[in-house]
Design goal:
There is one protein chain. The chain is α+β, with helices and mostly antiparallel strands and 235 residues long. The chain folds into three domains: 34 residues; 114 residues, Alpha-Beta Plaits, CATH 3.30.70.100; 43 residues. Helix content is 41%, strand content 14%. The protein is extended. 15% of the residues are buried. The N terminus is likely disordered.
C-alpha cells in the first residue's frame, strides 16, 4: 500500500513566501465571494510593521497567543441565584476591580451573562503563558477569584489543585484572535505612561528655561513637534 502520510503540498510552492501563501489561500477561499468582499480581503493583507506583528500560536494548555498577548474565554453554568449575587458585586464596585491590578500580566477581564442568567462567559486578555497566568490569579488575588467564581457550579476554589483542570474544561479557544499591539505587555504600557509623563515634565521645564541656547531650543521644538504628530492608522 502506498504511504499516504507524506506532505501533499505542491512542490512548485516550496519557495512561496508566507505573504504570498496567505494571498493565495484568500483567493481560493473567496473565489465565490462578491467582488467587493474579495477586494476588501486583498486590501487587508499586506506586509506589516514588525512591531505590530502578531501570531496565532497556542498560549499553553488552552487559549491563543499573539505576540506576547494571550486570550482566555470560558463559559460555565451558574448556581441558582449566582447571576444576581454577581450583579450586586459588580454594581457595588461600579464594574471596577482595582485589586486585579496586582496581577501585572492582566490587560482586561469581562463577565457576560448568558441563557437567561444560567451561564456566565468570562473573557480575559493577559501576557505570557496560560499556566503562569492562572498561578498569578491564585497567588495575588485569590480572595477576589473565590468571591466571584464561587457562584459557578463545581468551582473547586482557587487554591484547590484541580482548579486548572476545571478552568481548562470550560475554556474555549478563540477561532480568530487579533491584538493591536501584540508585542506590548501591561508592564510596558505602565512604563510608557511613566516615560510620557516624565518627558512632558522635562520639555515643560526646558521650554521655560530662558537661558538655553538657540540650537537646543530648536531641537526641543522639533522634538515637541514630532511627539505631537498622531500615529497613522494605516501602517
Amino acid at each position: 500500500m502506498t504511504d499516504q502520510t507524506t506532505d501533499s503540498r505542491d512542490p512548485r510552492l516550496e519557495d512561496e513566501s508566507r505573504l504570498a501563501e496567505i494571498r493565495r489561500v484568500v483567493r481560493e477561499v473567496a473565489a465565490d465571494a462578491p467582488k467587493l468582499a474579495r477586494i476588501a480581503l486583498e486590501s487587508a493583507i499586506r506586509k506589516h510593521n514588525p512591531d505590530l506583528k502578531g501570531t496565532a500560536q497556542s498560549a499553553g494548555r488552552a487559549g491563543r497567543q499573539s505576540g506576547n498577548v494571550s486570550e482566555l474565554t470560558a463559559i460555565a453554568t451558574l448556581k441558582p441565584g449566582g447571576a444576581d449575587r454577581l450583579r450586586r458585586i459588580f454594581n457595588l464596585t461600579n464594574g471596577n476591580f482595582d485589586g486585579a491590578q496586582r496581577v501585572s500580566t492582566l490587560h482586561d477581564m469581562r463577565f457576560v451573562f448568558l441563557d437567561n442568567d444560567t451561564k456566565i462567559l468570562f473573557a480575559t486578555t493577559y501576557d505570557g503563558d496560560w499556566d503562569a497566568y492562572i498561578n498569578d490569579f491564585a497567588t495575588k488575588i485569590p480572595g477576589l477569584m473565590d468571591l466571584l467564581f464561587q457562584n459557578v457550579e463545581g468551582w473547586p476554589g482557587i487554591a484547590d489543585p484541580s482548579v486548572k483542570d476545571f478552568i481548562a474544561r470550560h475554556q474555549i479557544d478563540a477561532a480568530g484572535w487579533f491584538v493591536a499591539n501584540p508585542q506590548v505587555s501591561v508592564v510596558d504600557v505602565r512604563r510608557f505612561q511613566r516615560m510620557d509623563k516624565a518627558l512632558d515634565a522635562f520639555l515643560d521645564a526646558m521650554n521655560a528655561n530662558e537661558g538655553i541656547d538657540d540650537t537646543t531650543r530648536a531641537a526641543l521644538s522639533k522634538l515637541t513637534e514630532e511627539l505631537a504628530k498622531p500615529e497613522p492608522v494605516d501602517y
